[in-house]
C-alpha cells in the first residue's frame, strides 16, 4: 500500500495518490471525504469509472461511499483525488480538519482507504482498528513547512525545493495516520519535543509543569518512563486535542501552553499515554476506562499544581449538560448504549473522586496502582473494575464499596449530591 499526499497550503488544496495491492482491499467499496473529488481511478493501469452512490454512515455524513467493479485476479488499484478541506466534514466533528497557509490538519479517517464489508460506521470503525499491512505514507509540503504525524518518521528528503516526510505503516496501525502541517517553532526539552505555532518561548513553563505532572503521576499511580519520548504538536484553538498513544504523539490546542491553569489539556493527553487500561470491546463506548480515569487523574494533578480543586468545575459542567435536556439521567453502565460516553469526562471522574473520598486517598491510590498494573494489557469491564476495587478494600470497607458501586455504576443514586 502506498499513500502520497501533496499539500499546497497557499492554494488551500490537497492532492492524494494512493496505490493498493489486491491483498490490501477488503471489498470494492472505498470511502472518500465529501470535500474531495476523484481525479483518476485505475485498475492495473487502466482507467475505470466508479459507480458513486451516497450511503449514509450513521451520523457521519462527511463521506461518500464509492463502488467500483474490480475484475478477478487484478493486481492493484490506483486512486487519485484532490480538494479543499472545509473543516465541516469528518467522523469526529470536534476535531476540525482544514487546509490553510497557516495550518493544515488531516485526521485518519479522511485518508482514502479501500474500506469495509458493510456500509455502516460501526463496520468502518472495526476495519480501521485492525493492524495495517505493509505500507508507505509520504507527505509532500513546500519548503519552510514542518509535518508532525502519528507514525514514527522514517526520513525527510528534499525534492525540487519541497520537503517529503516519509513514514512506514508497518509498526503501528497505518489506518490511524493523523498529520499537521505548519511553520512550526520546535523546542526540544527533557520532557519531550514541542512544535509551537508561534515563537513565544514557553519552554521553561512547559518543562517545569510537565516534570511536576509526570512526577506526581509516577508517585501516586505507578511509574511510567515516557516523558522524553513524546512529540507534542500545537494546533489552533477550536481544533480539539487528542493523543496517539502508540506513536507517542500528542496534538494540543495552542492556548493550553500559555499558563499552568490552561495546561490541564496537555496533561490530560499525556495521562492517556501511560495510565489507562484497555476496555473490553463491549464497553469501550462507555468511555470509563479512558476518559473517566484520565479526567480524574487530571483533576488530581491540577489540584497539586494550582492548589485549587476542580471538583466544582466538573460538577458544574455535568449539571449544565443534564440541565440542557439533551441527556437523560442514566447509570454509568448504560452510557454506551445511550451514546452518552462523553459524560464519563465529568460524572465518571466525579465517581472516582467520591470513591477516593470514601476509602481515603492513600488506599485509593494503592488500589488504583495495583489495578492499572494488573490490567495494563488485559481488557476490563465495569463488573471486573467493581470486583477488583471491592476485593482490594479492607474487610470493613468491602460492603460499603460494593454499595457505592451499586449507587454510582448501576444506578443514579450517587449522583443526587451533584444535582
Question: What labels would you give this structure?
Answer:
single chain; 419 residues; alpha+beta; Immunoglobulin-like; Zincin-like; Neutral Protease, domain 2; 3 domains; 8-stranded mixed sheet; 5-stranded mixed sheet; 10 helices; 21 strands; globular
How would you describe the overall organization of this protein?
This protein has helices spanning 121-128, 203-221, 264-272, 288-306, 311-323, 335-338, 347-359, 361-374, 382-392, 398-408, and strands spanning 2-8, 13-21, 29-33, 36-43, 46-47, 51-53, 63-67, 76-83, 98-99, 103-106, 113-114, 136-142, 146-149, 153-159, 162-168, 179-182, 185-189, 192-196, 231-235, 242-244, 249-253. By secondary structure, it is an alpha+beta fold. The strands form four sheets. The protein has an eight-stranded mixed sheet, with no helix packed on it. This is Peptidase M1 membrane alanine aminopeptidase domain-containing protein.
Amino acid at each position: 500500500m502506498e499513500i502520497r499526499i501533496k499539500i499546497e497550503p497557499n492554494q488551500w488544496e490537497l492532492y492524494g495518490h494512493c496505490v493498493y495491492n489486491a491483498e490490501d482491499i477488503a471489498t470494492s467499496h472505498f470511502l472518500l471525504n465529501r470535500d474531495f473529488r476523484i481525479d483518476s481511478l485505475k485498475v492495473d493501469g487502466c482507467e475505470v469509472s466508479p459507480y458513486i452512490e451516497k450511503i449514509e454512515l450513521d451520523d457521519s455524513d462527511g463521506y461518500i461511499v464509492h463502488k467500483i467493479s474490480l475484475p478477478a485476479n487484478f493486481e492493484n488499484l490506483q486512486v487519485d483525488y484532490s480538494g479543499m478541506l472545509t473543516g465541516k466534514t469528518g467522523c469526529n466533528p470536534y476535531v476540525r480538519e482544514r487546509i490553510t497557509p497557516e495550518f493544515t490538519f488531516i485526521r485518519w479517517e479522511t485518508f482514502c482507504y479501500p474500506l469495509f464489508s458493510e456500509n455502516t460506521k460501526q463496520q468502518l470503525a472495526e476495519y480501521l482498528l485492525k493492524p495495517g499491512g505493509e505500507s508507505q505514507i509520504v507527505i509532500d509540503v513546500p519548503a519552510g513547512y514542518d509535518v508532525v504525524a502519528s507514525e514514527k518518521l522514517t526520513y525527510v528528503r528534499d525534492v525540487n525545493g519541497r520537503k517529503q516526510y516519509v513514514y512506514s505503516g508497518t509498526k503501528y496501525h497505518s489506518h490511524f495516520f493523523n498529520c499537521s502541517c505548519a511553520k512550526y517553532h520546535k523546542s526540544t526539552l527533557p520532557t519531550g519535543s514541542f512544535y509551537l505555532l508561534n515563537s513565544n518561548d514557553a519552554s521553561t513553563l512547559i518543562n517545569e509543569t510537565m516534570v511536576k505532572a509526570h512526577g506526581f503521576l509516577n508517585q501516586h499511580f505507578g511509574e511510567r518512563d515516557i516523558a522524553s519520548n513524546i512529540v507534542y504538536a500545537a494546533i489552533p484553538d477550536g481544533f480539539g486535542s487528542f493523543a496517539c498513544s502508540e506513536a507517542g504523539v500528542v496534538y494540543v490546542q495552542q492556548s493550553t501552553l500559555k499558563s499552568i491553569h490552561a495546561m490541564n489539556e496537555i496533561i490530560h493527553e499525556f495521562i492517556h499515554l501511560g495510565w489507562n487500561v484497555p476496555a473490553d470491546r463491549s464497553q469501550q463506548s462507555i468511555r470509563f476506562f479512558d476518559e473517566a480515569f484520565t479526567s480524574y487523574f487530571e483533576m488530581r494533578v491540577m489540584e497539586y499544581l494550582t492548589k485549587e480543586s476542580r471538583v466544582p468545575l466538573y460538577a458544574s459542567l455535568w449539571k449544565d449538560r443534564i440541565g440542557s435536556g439533551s441527556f437523560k439521567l442514566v447509570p454509568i453502565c448504560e452510557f454506551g448504549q445511550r451514546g452518552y460516553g462523553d459524560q464519563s469526562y465529568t460524572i465518571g471522574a466525579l465517581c472516582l473522586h467520591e470513591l477516593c473520598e470514601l476509602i481515603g486517598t492513600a488506599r485509593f491510590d494503592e488500589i488504583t496502582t495495583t489495578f492499572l498494573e494488573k490490567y495494563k494489557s488485559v481488557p476490563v469491564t465495569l463488573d471486573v473494575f467493581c470486583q477488583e476495587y471491592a476485593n482490594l478494600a479492607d474487610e470493613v470497607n468491602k460492603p460499603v464499596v460494593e454499595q457505592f458501586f451499586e449507587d454510582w455504576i448501576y444506578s443514579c443514586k450517587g449522583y443526587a449530591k451533584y444535582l
